[in-house]
Amino acid sequence: MSYSPPATDGDQTLTVIHALDNIGDAYSFAAPASVAYPLANLAIYVPFSVSEAVTVQEGWVISGTVAGGNFDIGVYSAAGVRLTSSGSTARSASAVNNTTAMTNLDLAPGTRYYMAFSADTTANYIATASVAGLNEAMGILESTTSFVLPTNPTLSRTTRAYIPHFGLNLYTVAL
Predict the structure, then answer these.
(1) What pTM, to 2 d.p., does this model score?
(2) Where in the chain are the domains?
(3) In 10 A of CB 29, how many CB atoms?
(4) In angstroms, how far is CA 155 from the centroid of its own chain?
(5) What class is the 7-173 domain?
């Protein structure tokens, strides 16, 4: 996991994780752009782990140039069980960072999780498009008819070359 520089918020330190953090330089050739979401009600699951105990408090996604629709961001266990999600959240104006609260979830270091994103329309989001097969090779999964994010989705390997720019805001408690 790649961290942004920590920011202090009272007794907490904010850390941001992005869906592309675990992939490293695999996407360095692809510039982000406003791209239509590939399929209404599609959920995308990106694997990640953390190196220290943290608490998930928020999810975020960057809207593209076509506004409208709703999204849901969540965290799943390695077994594919939803641990928390924001629920259906209305997108705000285009080309902005949409942040949404979710029930706090403590994550353990060294454990595999999936951050998940789902949208109910094919409205545009800021995304990175890769070459076919790269997402599958990176362990990214998907499920269809998955808006809002289901408790126990039917997961399959993705063949799509699309990753929306979304992520989680994580907090550690200052000692």
Answers:
(1) 0.88
(2) 7-173
(3) 9
(4) 16
(5) mainly beta
